[in-house]
């Protein structure tokens, strides 16, 4: 089953980042629920490609930072000053995935 969908427009891009923001702000019920939703965000941004290794490398980096961010929220609360850096890193890796996808579609 292929769960990877290409980004088709700016609306899809905004949707991915909107869902990331909602996910972070919504404090998922569990770290596992957060990971599952984060994995879906990556799937929305990826396409089948010969550069899958690079894409999954960026995806894995996103997940590592996202997991750490969720752990930080769980331990220190949502007001932790380090969350800004972690959010920035999550966005960076999600943008990297998108950029790789777009570069292969041209």
Description:
The protein contains four helices and no strands. The model is unreliable at 1-12 (pLDDT under 50). It has helices spanning 10-26, 31-45, 52-76, 83-104. The longest helix has 25 residues, at 52-76. The chain is 75% helix and 0% strand. The chain is an all-alpha fold and 106 residues long.
Question: What integer is the average pLDDT?
Answer: 78
Q: Bin the strand percentage.
A: under 5%
Instruction: Report the structural category.
Output: mainly alpha
Number of strands: 0
Tally of individual helices: 4
Brief characterization of the structure:
The protein is mainly α and 106 residues long. The protein has helices spanning 10-26, 31-45, 52-76, 83-104. It starts with 9 loop residues before the first helix and ends with a helix.
Features:
elongated; single chain; 75% helix; mainly alpha; 106 residues; disordered N terminus
Please specify the SSE layout and strand pairing.
Blueprint: H1 10-26, H2 31-45, H3 52-76, H4 83-104
Helix pairs in contact: 1-2, 2-3, 3-4
